[in-house]
């Protein structure tokens, strides 16, 4: 799996994410000489067991996160958040699970937008929307340093690039900033980062709902 950093937009207190911020962020990619290079999409699905026998709930994990990534179209990843286990399967597992009806989708998040080439870096800027609504749930930035496949070796270069990116965003005086979670250095680090972004989006929106 590619070594990348995934950052998510964290609004300032009292502000919310909107399409204007998404447009401004996309313009930042072009302002630092990023060349638009097509669209991308990743999907994260929260799955719950479809229990026919309610007396035996312990036979299935209480929830699974299923993730499909654009650079691995033939793979599908499952994350068990409790024991922190990540497994890899063939993408056909989605069809099998649908036929078996062992799990049902509670909600799906779509991460989609444009990707940009910038020298040795590839950027993906995208919105986050749910399967239940077209309303904007969040904004993500995915950064990859192409010459290095080791996360440990690429971290310093990625960090320096993100500093430049943050300065470009800061110049636009937007009501928020991009946050980065230190990635899991395992083979499945990218899938774990997307799961973390989902958790942060849900947590921040719950906090916003309480304030309102």
TrEMBL record:
Protein name, per record: Mediator of RNA polymerase II transcription subunit 20
GO cellular component, one term: mediator complex
GO biological process entries: regulation of transcription by RNA polymerase II
Single GO MF annotation: transcription coactivator activity
InterPro entries the UniProt entry points to: Mediator_Med20 (IPR013921)
Location(s), subcellular: Nucleus
Keyword Transcription regulation: yes
Keyword match Transcription regulation: yes
Quaternary state and interactors: Component of the Mediator complex.
Primary residence: nucleus
Keywords of this entry: Activator, Nucleus, Transcription, Transcription regulation
UniProt record similarity statement: Belongs to the Mediator complex subunit 20 family.
Function per UniProt: Component of the Mediator complex, a coactivator involved in the regulated transcription of nearly all RNA polymerase II-dependent genes. Mediator functions as a bridge to convey information from gene-specific regulatory proteins to the basal RNA polymerase II transcription machinery. Mediator is recruited to promoters by direct interactions with regulatory proteins and serves as a scaffold for the assembly of a functional preinitiation complex with RNA polymerase II and the general transcription factors.
